[in-house]
Description:
Blueprint: E1 10-14, H1 20-38, H2 43-54, E2 60-65, E3 68-78, E4 81-89, H3 96-111, E5 130-134, E6 153-163, E7 180-183, H4 189-199, H5 205-208, H6 215-227, E8 233-234, E9 240-243, E10 249-257, E11 262-270, H7 279-293, E12 298-304, H8 308-316, E13 320-330
Parallel strand pairs: 4-5, 11-12
Antiparallel strand pairs: 1-2, 2-3, 3-4, 5-13, 6-12, 6-13, 7-9, 8-10, 9-10, 10-11
Amino acid sequence: MAVTAPIGARRLVDLRKVSPGAIQPLLEQEVQLWKRMLHWDFRPSAAMLSRYIGYRALDGLALCDGPEIAGYCYWVPEGRKALLGGLFVGQEWRGPAAENSLLRGALDTLAGWPDMTAQPGLPAAGWIRRVEAQLMMLSIHGPQVLPQGPPPQAFRRFFMIGALHPAVRLRPILPPPGYRFDRWMPSMTGDLASLVERCYQGHIDSEINDQYRTAEGARRFLENIINYPGCGALQPSASWVLLDGAGTPQAMVLCTSVSGSTGHIAQICTAPHLRGSGAGYELMRRAMLGLLAQGSVEASLTVTAANARALSMYRRLGFATTHEFDALVWTTC
């Protein structure tokens, strides 16, 4: 068992004061953990983090223990919200004390985050009103997270993996009359953002990610999947859209590649009036076959535990939960 360093030996420092070389051993450890736990190649994301740290352009904190960096977290502001994009603590220090120290430091920093557009004479602090976090490498859950407060809303999520080869035996389902399946194309992004907004009205996932609540936010969400490595490299040939007679998207699936042998279902949604029609199943079948054709042998996805309909479908398709984590939301900080 690893020996945990005493909390008194640690200190939080601005991530902008950390050099890429100093944090590299920690990032290498994180790469290995992502590979072992999730079957993901985290190297592209680690390289991007190292690059931004080198530019002194990443807002966040490092937890230092003497000369060693024990952990880090970073965040991305978006209007009056901040997204905790990552938090990782090395194996020697991993546990509630170190992880909560970083969470507390992040929330305390964001509580005084200045509004650079504030008018002279008006309070500039307290600009951030909402903090969201889906931290796959966080080892603490539920009441272990900041037991002294402020307590977050916590939504249990499942990380699932399923073999792709069984998809060749799945029965195809025809689209509803007047509808057709088509490949995803970049020109669809605006219409797909509107679809996401419609699909997630009143849905529990819109409580986790408020980008789902507006077409503008959904567009930013989709562009992150398309353009950045956080969810892997987009695979257009495995990404599908269901169009109605007017050519308007009514359902979609976007797939990425997260390693040489693993694909990922980055986003799937179906308009409310088509739920139960088999559209979601057929999108998954096509996505699985598309990933299989490109050399993947398995695929991963994440789903909120309370989303019983989606969870049941994924299990029927052979996906099994391999990791559980909490999506965390603080509405004030």
